[in-house]
Amino acid sequence: MNEYSVLIATANTATLLTGGAVAVLAYRAFRRTGAGPLRAVAIGFGLLVAGSVLGGAVHLLAGRIALGVAVQSSFTAGGCAVLLYSLYAETPTRTVTVRKSP
Prior knowledge:
Layout: H1 5-33, H2 36-62, H3 65-88
Helix pairs in contact: 1-2, 2-3
């Protein structure tokens, strides 16, 4: 381990907790509403969290800094692509008709 190990572990823990919370909340919102873009948000944040944790694990446990950065960067790129998709995905609109009672 090197002098950055504590910083890396702390940052990855914070990413796991905060990003994981966003992913869980987005997934719960998707389950409640059925909106596809919310599912994409959950997947995107899940990829960001997974990349951070896996990249940090490779660096801290295997001692391979370059591989850890490559893993984290790949997952970050994928997560950002899914988040970008979620911003452009269209949710089908539902028309609700309210009838006036006689």
